[in-house]
């Protein structure tokens, strides 16, 4: 049997829903079958990580044990001490496996990616969040079984959304009332159907049917136009943006829907991002759990440190430095290629420009009109800025210019 990628085909959902049936029936009658939950998790993870080549599964097991050692060692230490450098060392240790995996393509060393498996980034975000909240004192106790259940929650393991431990615990430790669960079931079915439309219809149309044809056409202008710029390249930009959204949003809807079937209210990851009126609004709507994770655990902590150490006096400069650091890290997280780094720098510049415009607009609110037209114009500008950033992110320019 080959590894089965979660949510990769309609057939997968038939098997998955059959497996979830006892969980659904139990919740309808006010019970959680925790032993069966564990059994279902083993089955799903087994098909995803141990089918055919078991290397991914072994890497997952090694990763979980490694993170448990790091987290529970820090938890034991934190009960008596609170040294910043011990905390920093624990965070660094927690991200070491992910760093190895990200460096693997750069170094071309097959032995360095010991922890390579689907979803390692999302599991690392969860592990780091636990360490940071242990340091903050918001997580004082956590059992090994609770950690494993949180980290290996199979609906979200490969593609998110990124849940928070305390929010997740609140759901899994309680059983929703029958009326509440019926609402969750309806919501789950709605999200599942929308996810099918997004991924298997719209995502397929833009990504499998249109994108390869437009790509060939755009590449045909590589040596005919300066930098290969053509209307076909513009078409590629919009087509790839649509594909990226519908495919990724489809995966996220599947994860939230399956979570709802299991009585867990996993947060939504997308909220009509292409209706954003500015780039900051976009990041509050696009890959929400990731952008909020970076905001809470990197940007806000960096700003707080700069304020506490009085490294920068100007709050504007402080915010701008925070944007550059934040989006550079996000770029490197996607990969060590020039277009991911440029993608991060582009969004940092977009955020800095957006903040400058909002400050200018606030000072001249009487002279600058605000109506339905200006709102639609703002949405149009933001949409095109975002689509251009996705063109950079796609790596197509690398192929167009250097291949």
TrEMBL record:
The chain crosses the membrane at residues 12-29, 36-54, 84-100, 106-125, 201-222, 243-263, 316-333, 339-357, 377-397. Keywords: Acyltransferase, Cell membrane, Membrane, Transferase, Transmembrane, Transmembrane helix. GO terms for cellular component: plasma membrane. GO terms for biological process: lipoteichoic acid biosynthetic process. It is an enzyme of class 2 (transferase). It holds the Pfam family MBOAT. Signal peptide: none annotated. It comes from the Bacteria. Belongs to the membrane-bound acyltransferase family. This is Teichoic acid D-alanyltransferase. It comes from Companilactobacillus allii.
